[in-house]
Every structure is written in structure tokens, then in C-alpha cells.
Amino acid sequence: MKIKLTKGELKRHRDALKQFQRYLPTLQLKKQQLQIEILHQMTILEKKKHQQQAKKESALAWTALLAEPIDISPWIKPQEVKIVEKSIAGVDIPVFEQTDFAKTQYDLFTLPLWVDEAIESLRVLVALGEEIRILQKGIETLRYELRITTQRVNLFEKIKIPESQEAIRRIKIYLGDQTANAVGRSKIAKRKIEAFELQGAAL
Questions:
Q1: Taking a C-beta distance cutoff of 8 angstroms, is the pair 59, 125 a contact?
Q2: Dihedral Cα 53, 54, 55, 56, nearest 10 deg
């Protein structure tokens, strides 16, 4: 890195260093918040996956019955998946609210008794699937932001701050040497002037 060894350059690097040191704690805090939230979301995701697995196992009881020529798919297809947004350290992630299904309208006398229970059970399974999908999307968003924030923290900690500190050190040494040399030259000039004055006085 080429550095101009001037007072102006010294001021520029000092100002930059102050700015980096002011922003770094904010970035570090954001990184920490994102890490905590990712762990929290992962815990929820694992819980929902266990619920989904348990629900799938209980739904196996319906598989034989579903082999009958009854199409219940229109009643278990989501009509709307409601999502709200949650802000984590300035990052918006989707949060599952609920899944709405179409109203079941069919003739109770022509369909078997198990249909109601099967529809309800499968709707819970479908809703869990939607919730898991949204959780995964939110975690993906948080991980991307964490990656960007970590890169910025590393840039400040490992490159920008050390570069500014090194530039300040080098400029200060150079300016210090220049000042010392100037003082030395001034003393020599003063002694020469005094010597000439003494010679003149002797004459």
C-alpha cells in the first residue's frame, strides 16, 4: 500500500480509523444477533420436522383407505398461506402465521365416515410442510446476511483497521524524523550564524 507521507494523509487515516472503530462494534453485534437467531430458528425447524414425521406416521393409517376411489385432494390443497415479516438485526424474514383451506362441502351420506378425520389430519400435515418451507427460507435469508456481515467484520478487523494503524505509524515516524532533521539543521545554522557573528566581532 502506497502512502503519502504528509500531515493531510495522516489526518485522513486517523479519520478513517475512527470510522472503522465506530462501525465495527455495530457489525459485531449484528453478527452475534444473527447467529443467535439462526440457532433459534434451527431449533424451531427441528421441532416442526419431528412433528411432521410423527404426523406422517399417524397418517399411514389413512393410506389404505385413500386407495378407495375418493379424491380428497381439493380439500387438503392450501387456499392461502398467511405470512408475516419479522425483523432481525435489520433483516426481514418470513414467519408462518397459518394455512387456510377451502371449506369442505360434500354429501355426508355418500362418503365414508373416515373422510372428515382424514382431511383434518392431512391438512395438519400440509400446514406443517408449509411452515417448514417458510422456516427454511427464513434461515437461508439469515445465513446469507450472516455471511455478508462476517465478511465486513473480517474486512474491518483484519484489513482496514490494521492498514490505517500501519499508515498512521509510518507517517508519524516519517514526520517525526523530518521534524528532528529540521531541528538539527536549525541548530547547525544557528551555530554557524553565531560563529560568523563572533568572527565579525573579532574583526
A1: yes
A2: 50
What are the residue boundaries of the structural domains of the chain, listed by start? 7-165
Residue 99 three-state SS? strand
CA atoms of 24 and 139, how far apart (whole Å): 24
10-residue mean pLDDT profile of the chain (203 residues): values are: 81 92 94 96 96 85 61 82 92 94 72 75 91 96 97 95 92 79 63 59 54
76 with 123: CB under 8 angstroms? yes
Q: HEC string of 93-138? A: EEEEEEEEECCCCCCCCCCCCHHHHHHHHHHHHHHHHHHHHHHHHH
pLDDT digits 0-9 by tens, 16-52: 999 999 999 999 999 999 999 999 999 999 999 999 9
CATH class for domain 7-165?
A: mainly alpha
Helix (H, G, I), strand (E, B) or coil at 84: strand
Nearest to 132 by CA among 22, 42, 4: 42
> Is the pTM value of this prediction over 0.85?
no
> Backbone dihedral region of 89: left (phi > 0), alpha (psi from -120 to 50 degrees) or beta?
left
Cell of 191: 551555530
